[in-house]
Amino acid sequence: MTRALTDSTVLSNGVKMPWLGLGVWKVKDDGEAERTVAAAIEAGYRSIDTAAAYNNEEGVGAGIRSCGIARDEIFVTTKIWNAHQGYESALTAFEDSRRKLGVEVVDLLLIHWPVKGKYTETWRALEKLYRDGYVRAIGVSNFQIHHLKDLYESGEIVPMVNQVEYHPLLSQQELHTFAKSNNIQLEAWSPLMQGNLDHRVLAQIGEKYGKSPAQVVLRWDLQNGVVTIPKSTNPARLKENADIFDFTLTQEEIAEINALNRNHRLGPDPDNFNF
To answer: Under DSSP, is residue 224 helix (H, G, I), strand (E, B) or coil?
Structure first.
């Protein structure tokens, strides 16, 4: 049971990854990313999730360097973008990300989307980076069960993390069960449903604990064993999102939230995207 913002899950290779982190999608690299990362770390966050495609790795790196916390206490994730997939191009893209972040080692490197015909070669590049010690853990993002099975057959290392769209309207039970049975840590992006939190169940549960619907959803994530990375640039909201360790949902409440599932995606379909 997660009881503090500093609590971590342990990935299949023994690396510790914080249960709650900050996502920085759409956070601008004009000073905003640096300020947001620094504010999050000051609020107690120790995990920052960025990506080459977010165009803010330099700002994230600056925020990490200026925060006053030792680098090895902060868990940094970035991702290989679709246009850079393939073996050699992924290795080159990683070097570019590492330079922009200003770090020697990246804690977690993910393949951003399962680009057909390319993601198995990209995975081979991630395996090399992992073996060479440039990344502490490797994983994927937006992979379905059949994509993961492809990596099992072609690769040598099982992904340690699968970061997917996950929230009460899209709880991905089959994928979650598969991940658990293969020791893959599920991680949620868009956990707060892009602000679509107006559901009676969430409001009622929140009222009981004196919490917002957003806090209820984030607590539900953690109690389901899912790492989560809500995004905010507002220092007060950053603190609110982290204030979820002083209450525990009952099994009945978790079941009520589970029942909201509609298999409804707010983002692209991993089996049908064209970018």
So the answer is: coil
Domains, in order of start, for the chain: 8-196+222-233 (3.20.20.100)
How many whole angstroms separate alpha carbon 67 and alpha carbon 4?
20
Start-to-end C-alpha separation, the chain: 38
CA distance 120 to 9: 27
| Cα-Cα-Cα-Cα dihedral sign, residues 233, 235, 238, 240 | negative
Q: How far is CA 265 from the centre of its chain?
A: 17
pTM exceeding 0.85: yes
Q: Which residues are catalytic?
A: 54
Span 52-85, pLDDT tens digits: 999 999 999 999 999 999 999 999 999 999 999 9
Sole residue written with tokens 């990246």: 106
Q: Is 176 annotated as a binding residue?
A: no
| Under 8 Å between Cβ of 17 and 9 | yes
- How do 8-10 and 16-18 pair as beta strands? antiparallel
C-alpha of 236 from chain center:
21
Answer whether 75's CB lies under 8 Å from 108's CB: yes
> CB–CB of 162/141 below 8 Å?
yes
> Is the sign of the CA dihedral 108, 109, 114, 116 positive or negative?
negative
Instruction: Give me the percent of the chain exceeding a pLDDT of 90.
Output: 96
Q: Check pLDDT > 90 for residue 126.
A: yes
pLDDT confidence tier of residue 1, bands split at 50, 70 and 90: low
